[in-house]
């Protein structure tokens, strides 16, 4: 009878394939263990091992605040009257502050007429 046409004589036998699978399984097992060891080494720093802090590199751990959240929004709370000096409708005194020189060209403005008031 002989060898069927679709099977070439260069193909490995069943026993050779079985041996190859065993070798590959062994290699996968060793590589998995090595990856686990390397990941464990990579995750080490001065907090979880005996390494000095200088070996941690530039990354600092995020600061952890001990303050508790109050649940309120920042700023003045609704219903709080606030504390400020309110604007008066009848001031005791009004002062006009005018510049002595122009900010753009530097011209003298001491004798210039006031044309626009910020109080109007």
Folded structure, characterized:
The chain is mainly alpha-helical and 120 residues long. The model has no long low-confidence stretch (mean pLDDT 84). It has one helix spanning 14-42. It is built from 1 helix and no strands. It has a domain at 14-51. Helix content is 24%, strand content 0%.
Strand tally, please?
0
Instruction: State the low-pLDDT regions, or none.
Output: none
| Rg value | 42 Å
Class computed from helices, strands and strand pairing? mainly alpha
The helix-strand sequence is H
Features:
120 residues, mainly alpha, elongated
Task: Present the secondary structure layout.
Layout: H1 14-42
What's the quick description here?
The chain is mostly helical and 120 residues long. It has 1 helix and no strands.
């Amino acid at each position: 009878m002989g060898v069927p046409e679709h099977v070439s004589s260069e193909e490995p036998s069943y026993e050779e394939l079985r041996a190859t699978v065993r070798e590959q399984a062994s290699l996968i097992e060793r590589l998995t263990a090595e990856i686990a060891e390397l990941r464990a080494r990579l995750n080490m720093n001065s907090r979880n091992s005996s390494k000095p802090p200088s070996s941690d590199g530039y990354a600092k751990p995020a600061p952890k605040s001990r303050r508790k959240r109050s649940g309120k929004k920042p700023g003045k709370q609704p219903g709080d009257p606030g504390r400020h000096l309110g604007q008066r409708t009848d001031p005791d005194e009004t002062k006009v502050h005018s510049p002595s020189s122009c900010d753009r060209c530097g011209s003298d403005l001491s004798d210039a007429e006031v044309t626009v008031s910020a109080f109007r």
